[in-house]
């Protein structure tokens, strides 16, 4: 049992940031206690663990000070549990590229989805979709270079970018259905399309992905709170 | 022979932290100053996504984003002057506060300097709130990174470096000794670190350069 029973993860269903941490915990076969937060009524534990941002995910390991921010949590887990399924490569240059692209996905790529949601009217949405297509094609190039002919961004096994982008897939699929278009397709992003099928059915991701009901509710909430 | 190039501007707080890291680790490099109104083909080639500085080019391979570059430098030249601590929890903590600094403190600080009216008031309030958290971090430590300076000090170095020059030029003071005694002590200690003290532009040059900008804007 050892280290594995000592981990608590504060999370919430529709958060792909939380899903990422779950994915990594599963990949590394680490047992953890999931504390489901109601984001409309945050617990004392969440507010005291993350007084700055009051957000999930929060990882608490063996009652030590909490670790915040999904990417920081992932790197922490990768350093502590370095022997089991490494997430980041060991080479400094490859690590830098992984971190750069994770940052790109978290800032530029996601921002386009937010812009899409907030843009009223079909014409406006079409313009944003064009930018999204360009960005997705860029990620296709990143996939081709990083995977080097293998199954994942991380090569033979799921790596950092796979976790970052993979957990966003539930939201991507939701957006595709809502807008009746494709983000990844056979013509523009063939390799990524294959990758999405592969990662979507990955054993360690399946129970970490949130359901469509939670996403529908989350989308509705965003439309009200941040139109 | 390692070939290291840094694409830079004199004023970017994101560039300066890289300059300090390279100096601290005694890494020889060539610095290329960019005119951001007229970016060089090389910069656009090395950073096509963001088209920004800093870009570190090591043996012809570019690395972008200043915090990513800092970690790359620390992992590649790991023997001289380690920047991040070894303990994973301490590392996570420094990474968190560095991100907080870049996403919240820095924008609100420069917002306060550059905005007017109500926007400026809001930026001031936000900056004071954020600075209180950093002040708290220094309540039991010499430096942000602990007993000795490190990654987090470099990440907040822009604050130490710009506080006085901007105060002199604009009359706007945020690092007040009564409200932020720890930060003020830290600022002075940070600026005395030889690698920091010796890098260009120094405090007096910064004052002159900010003065020029202010005059050219007719403020």
TrEMBL record, chain A:
Q: Under the GO molecular function aspect, what terms does this record hold?
A: glutathione transferase activity
User: Is Transferase among this UniProt entry's keywords?
Assistant: yes
GST N-terminal domain residues are: 5-85
Catalytic activity, reaction form: RX + glutathione = an S-substituted glutathione + a halide anion + H(+)
- Class of enzymatic activity (EC top level): transferase
Q: Does the keyword DNA-binding apply?
A: no
Name the family. Belongs to the GST superfamily. Tau family.
The organism is: Ambrosia artemisiifolia
Residues annotated as domain GST C-terminal: 91-227
A cellular component term, taken from the record's GO annotations:
cytosol
> Main localisation, per the record?
cytoplasm
Q: Where is it localised?
A: Cytoplasm, Cytosol
Role: Is involved in the conjugation of reduced glutathione to a wide number of exogenous and endogenous hydrophobic electrophiles.
Q: Which InterPro entries match?
A: Glutathione-S-Trfase_C-like (IPR010987), Glutathione-S-Trfase_C_sf (IPR036282), Glutathione_S-Trfase (IPR040079), Glutathione_S-Trfase_N (IPR004045), GST_C_Tau (IPR045074), Omega/Tau-like (IPR045073), Thioredoxin-like_sf (IPR036249)
Note one Pfam family from the annotation: GST_N
Q: Which UniProt keywords apply?
A: Cytoplasm, Detoxification, Transferase
Which GO terms fall under biological process for this protein? glutathione metabolic process; toxin catabolic process
What Gene3D superfamilies does the annotation carry? Answer: 1.20.1050.10, Glutaredoxin (3.40.30.10)
EC number assigned by the record:
2.5.1.18
What is the protein name stated in its UniProt record? Glutathione S-transferase
From TrEMBL, chain B:
Query: Which CDD domains does the protein's record reference?
Result: GST_C_Tau (cd03185), GST_N_Tau (cd03058)
Q: Which chemical reaction does it catalyze? A: RX + glutathione = an S-substituted glutathione + a halide anion + H(+)
Q: Name one Pfam family in it.
A: GST_N
Write out the GO cellular component annotations. cytoplasm
**One GO BP:** glutathione metabolic process
Q: Which InterPro entries does this chain map to?
A: Glutathione-S-Trfase_C-like, Glutathione-S-Trfase_C_sf, Glutathione_S-Trfase, Glutathione_S-Trfase_N, GST_C, GST_C_Tau, Omega/Tau-like, Thioredoxin-like_sf
Q: Name one GO molecular function term.
A: glutathione transferase activity
- EC number(s) recorded for this UniProt protein: 2.5.1.18
Annotated GST C-terminal domain residues: 87-219
Q: What is this protein called?
A: glutathione transferase
Organism encoding this protein: Ambrosia artemisiifolia (Common ragweed)
């Amino acid at each position: 049992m050892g280290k594995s029973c000592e981990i608590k993860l504060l999370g919430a269903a529709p958060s792909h940031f939380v899903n990422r941490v779950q994915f990594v915990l599963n990949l590394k076969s680490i047992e953890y206690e999931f504390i489901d937060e109601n984001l409309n009524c945050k617990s004392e534990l969440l507010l005291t663990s993350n007084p700055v941002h009051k957000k999930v995910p929060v990882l608490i390991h063996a009652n030590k000070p909490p670790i915040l921010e999904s990417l920081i949590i992932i790197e922490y887990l990768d350093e502590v549990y370095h022997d089991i399924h490494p997430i980041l490569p060991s080479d400094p240059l490859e690590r830098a590229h992984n971190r750069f692209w994770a940052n790109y996905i978290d800032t530029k790529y996601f921002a386009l989805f937010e812009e899409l949601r907030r843009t009223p009217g079909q014409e406006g949405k079409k313009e944003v979709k064009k930018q999204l297509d360009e960005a997705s094609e860029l990620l296709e190039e990143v996939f081709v270079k990083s995977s080097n002919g293998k199954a994942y961004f991380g090569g033979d096994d799921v790596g950092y970018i796979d976790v970052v982008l993979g957990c966003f897939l539930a939201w991507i699929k939701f957006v595709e259905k809502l807008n009746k278009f494709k983000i990844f397709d056979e013509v523009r992003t063939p390799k990524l399309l294959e990758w999405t099928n592969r990662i979507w059915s990955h054993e360690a991701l399946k129970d970490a992905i949130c359901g469509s009901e939670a996403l529908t509710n989350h989308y509705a909430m965003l439309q009200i709170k941040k139109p | 022979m390692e070939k290291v190039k840094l694409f830079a501007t004199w004023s970017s707080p994101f560039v300066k932290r890289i300059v300090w890291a390279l100096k601290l680790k005694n890494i020889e490099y060539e610095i290329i100053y960019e005119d951001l109104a007229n970016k060089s083909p090389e910069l656009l080639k090395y950073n096509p996504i963001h088209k920004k500085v800093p870009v570190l080019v090591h043996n012809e391979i570019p690395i972008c984003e200043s915090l990513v570059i800092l970690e790359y430098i620390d992992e590649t030249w790991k023997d001289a002057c380690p920047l991040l601590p070894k303990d994973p929890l301490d590392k996570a903590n420094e990474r968190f506060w560095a991100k907080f600094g870049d996403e919240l403190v820095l924008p609100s600080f420069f917002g306060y300097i550059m905005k007017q009216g109500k926007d400026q008031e809001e930026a001031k309030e936000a900056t004071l709130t954020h600075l209180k958290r950093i002040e708290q971090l220094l309540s039991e430590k010499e430096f942000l990174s602990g007993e000795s300076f490190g990654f987090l000090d470099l990440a907040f170095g822009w604050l130490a470096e710009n506080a006085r020059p901007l105060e002199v030029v604009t009359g706007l003071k945020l690092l007040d000794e009564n409200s932020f005694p720890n930060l003020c002590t830290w600022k002075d200690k940070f600026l005395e670190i030889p690698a920091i003290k010796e890098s260009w532009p120094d405090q007096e040059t910064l004052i002159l350069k900010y003065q020029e900008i202010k005059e050219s804007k007719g403020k």
